[in-house]
Amino acid sequence: MTEQKPPYIKEFPLREAHHLVRDLMTPNPWIYWIDFMFHILLGWAAFFTALLSPLFSVWQLAGYVIAVLALYRSAIFVHELAHLKKGTFNKFRLVWNLICGIPLMIPSFTYDGVHNDHHKPDVYGTSKDGEYLPFATRRPVEMVVYVLLSFLIPALLVARFLLLTPLSYLIPPLRKIVWERASSLTIDPNYRRAENTIRNDLNWRQQEMASCLFAAVIIALVALEVLPYSFIVLWYLITVTIFILNSLRTLAAHAYRNPGEHKMTLAEQYLDSINIPGNFLITPLWAPVGLRYHATHHLFMSMPYHNLGKAQRRLVNGLTDNSQYIKTIRSGLWDALKRIWHESSTTTPPHHP
């Protein structure tokens, strides 16, 4: 029997939507550079302010909060790097890796290619999509576990680059396992990265070795008492907080209703995604670099982050019939999380023999 698409897909005005935003597809390098450099320098300045301030002082707490938010925004540029036109922004990619990706143990190759699969209609929402789990069809406790895993991720990343990188070159069979199971920023623990899943970062081996070297140097400096032990503690606490924020944002990014077997069209991907325009001051703190317009991003994945807000306004106000478009809008993070929690709580999980 031929699978029939839901009727709302036929009504979704994709062609009209594209016409309204077709002039917004070109990234502005100045915006990328100024935004990233300001926040990464602010983040590291706040990090060292927190490190050198008296314990639990106002300066330390302020430095901690600013470091989390600024480094979080800087780190999220890895999402833009995954979407920028192949072969462009090479210097930006290099600088991002040197002063953000490698120090945070998330070099850009860990997202390159992997994330692009997330946008393919024949992959999105299926078991091959490493960035999708059908949380809405499962027990709520699985979302809690997903958020709590943020406490382990920084340590696992350090172990992956500091220990598994050299070991995998000394033990060739381990290399394949490390690439498939420990080289991707995904949410599905069963995800296996394909051998050719690289789009831009052909120098991924250099990124990998640089991350290994960075971790080794920091640990050596702490062991030699050149850096205080609190350096590692602060790095861990900040990265944990960043991953908690990002896990909550991720839960609010999609409806997560597809159980994994059904292949979704571009319009279905959009309607399974979430827009949270929210407050222009608060919302970008937890959904930075355009990610509050995540559904719009799934419509136009090549659109630079700095144009997504403008595209959102044009589509809401300019579509002849915007009823389908506004279905994805949520009032805030709490609204999005409350909805998926309620849906998960009232859905009977599928039986697995």
Describe the structure.
The protein is mainly α and 353 residues long. Helix content is 56%, strand content 0%. The protein has helices at 7-11, 14-21, 29-52, 58-75, 77-83, 90-101, 114-118, 141-148, 153-170, 172-181, 204-223, 230-251, 266-271, 283-286, 294-299, 308-318, 333-345. Helix 8 runs antiparallel to helix 12 (230-251) and helix 9 runs antiparallel to helix 10 (172-181).
Question: What is the strand and helix layout of this fold?
Answer:
Elements: H1 7-11, H2 14-21, H3 29-52, H4 58-75, H5 77-83, H6 90-101, H7 114-118, H8 141-148, H9 153-170, H10 172-181, H11 204-223, H12 230-251, H13 266-271, H14 283-286, H15 294-299, H16 308-318, H17 333-345
Q: What is the gyration radius calculated from CA atoms?
A: 21 Å
Count the DSSP helices: 17
The ordered H/E elements are HHHHHHHHHHHHHHHHH
Major sheet description: none
Structural class call reads: mainly alpha
Low-confidence stretches: 1-9
Mean pLDDT, rounded to whole units? 93
What's the overall geometry?
A: globular
Which descriptors apply to this entry?
353 residues, mainly alpha, 17 helices, globular, disordered N terminus
